[in-house]
Write a structure and sequence with these properties.
By secondary structure, the protein is mostly helical. It has 2 helices and no strands. The termini are far apart.
Amino acid sequence: MSDGNFNRQLLPKTELSSGLRAGRAQMRTKAEKAFDEVVNEFIMNETEERKEAMKRRFMELLRQ
């Protein structure tokens, strides 16, 4: 019967935290692409400079 102790050698080589970071990076990439599509579809009359500023601010908010 186990007393709650375990052999760390039996655990998988990858850590849970690295998987979480990878998932967050994927979602950030998806959000960035979705933002680009929405901005290009609905805000056509803005300059590219203004669109980039909006994207930078959006990405800053995602990182918080």
